[in-house]
Amino acid sequence: MRIHESAEDYLERILILKKKNGKVISIDIANSMNYSKPSISRAMKILRENKYITIDSNGEIELTEKGFEIASSMYERHTLLTNYFMHLGVPEEIAKIDACKVEHDISAETFEAIKNHVALFNKEKK
After folding, report:
1. What is the pLDDT of residues 21-32, one digit of tens each?
2. Which of 59, 58, 56, 67 is nearest to 26 (CA)?
3. Which residues does the chain have with pLDDT short of 50?
4. Domain ranges (residues) in the chain
5. Cβ contact 5:74 at 8 Å
6. Strand partners, 42
7. What are phi and psi of 54, to 5 degrees?
8. Which of 26, 37, 101, 109 is 20 to 30 Å from the Cα of 11, by its Cα?
9. 5-69 adopts what CATH topology?
10. Residues 6+ apart with CB under 8 A from 92
11. What is the CATH number of domain 74-125?
12. pTM score of the predicted model
């Protein structure tokens, strides 16, 4: 199932903030993405309705299993592509921006090929 790029970004950000802070509430997402609180509230409502997240009575946001799968996939793509682009000589900030653009549209086959290439390169380097 394909979801919107913005939903993938929100799920990835929730995962990153959860790893960093241990818990996530809407204001954390708003602050880290530089979006308004109402925009984040609407997005969280849609993610909750589509069962990508749960929100408890304290406002703490948790990824569901399917939300975690998408977030993990986006995070892996973003991290690997950023590092790959930097290895090619792209400055870090540009590499991060470009990785964010590419991570949503790259096919699974092409991403796996890049992943295998990086693994092979790292193996040969040792």
Report:
1. 999 999 999 999
2. 59
3. none
4. 5-69, 74-125
5. no
6. none
7. -125, 155
8. 109
9. Arc Repressor Mutant, subunit A (1.10.10)
10. 82, 86
11. 1.10.60.10
12. 0.86
